[in-house]
Give the backbone structure.
Amino acid sequence: QLQASGGGLVQPGGSLRLSCAASGSISSINAMGWFRQAPGNERELVAAITKWGSTNYADSVKGRFTISRDNAKNTVYLQMNSLKPEDTAVYYCSVKRYTIWDYWGQGTLVTVSS
């Protein structure tokens, strides 16, 4: 029900854009977001955006990543610039309808390496 795409291998300093489309079967979406999980680490929130356009970011990505959303298409994007090796992780999109993140995409791998 959530289809993510856009991951891959990129050199440090490079850019990638992730996309995630929610199927029409998911209704009443309040917020959409991106999480990531690196090996040995817990999953962490990278960025989120509400249906009204309010955003929040992890401190580690502020100024480098930008989250945006197309409400008509139920699609969320994550533009990642100035990528660092520590950004390497599996990135997951998710949606929140009420109080919890209750739908998850399959994950897309981002590898930042020279």
